[in-house]
Amino acid sequence: MGLERVPGYGYYQAKLEQEVAARSGPLPVSIVRATQFHEFPAQILARTQKGPFAVAPRMKIQPIAARAVGETLVDVATIPARPPTVEVAGPEPADLVDLARALIAHRGQRVAVIALCIPGAAGKSMNGGALIPTPDVRTIGPTFTQWLESPDSAPSKN
């Protein structure tokens, strides 16, 4: 969500092109757009942690639980008159770096999370709130703090 408000970021450009390709096909489609998942900070930490340090990009997000997105997908797929686009977000905006630090603290780990500013227009947009949804987006709980206290936040055994 907010992909069109982040210029020059290839990953987001590709996601928008995938939406166009899906809509141009012979079958009707509904697209569920969601903000980053509550699980996103753990993914960032898993990729960037080196010993007692990890890096997380400065970006304002409004994360949602992956479980809530899955439930939304089922809801949209099972209603007869599906809307062309459904947008969902978690209930609270936050900075990704703060979420990563909260996750580290919750897990009782001793890891210093270093904030990284993504360069260029894309980074400026992400840090400036371009990924925060518009007010008319449907918000679904739990909050990140509530999610941390749930079994869904447990580290993956993979």
Structure commentary:
There is one protein chain. With 158 residues, the protein is an alpha/beta fold. The protein has one domain (3-150): NAD(P)-binding Rossmann-like Domain (Rossmann fold, 3-Layer(aba) Sandwich). Helix content is 38%, strand content 16%. The chain has a 3-stranded parallel sheet with strand order 1-4-7, covered by helices on one side. Strands 2-6 form a two-stranded parallel ribbon. The longest helix is centred in the first third of the chain and has 14 residues, at 10-23. It starts with 9 loop residues before the first helix and ends in a 10-residue tail after the last helix. 25% of the residues are buried. The mean pLDDT is 92.
Oligomerization state: single chain
The averaged pLDDT comes out at: 92
What is the assigned CATH homologous superfamily?
NAD(P)-binding Rossmann-like Domain
Mind describing the biggest β-sheet? Answer: 3 strands, parallel
Straight-line N-to-C gap = 28 Å
Number of β-strand runs: 7
Based on CA atoms alone, the radius of gyration comes out at 17 Å
CATH class: Alpha Beta
Helix content: 25-40%
Along the chain, the helix and strand elements come as HEHEEHEEHEHEH
CATH topology: Rossmann fold
Spatially, the strands of the biggest sheet line up as 1-4-7
* Distinct helical segment count: 6
Q: What would you say the CATH architecture is? A: 3-Layer(aba) Sandwich
Low-confidence stretches: none
C-alpha geometry: globular
Helix/strand structural class? alpha/beta
> What count of domains describes the coordinates?
1
Give the percentage of residues in beta strands: 15-25%
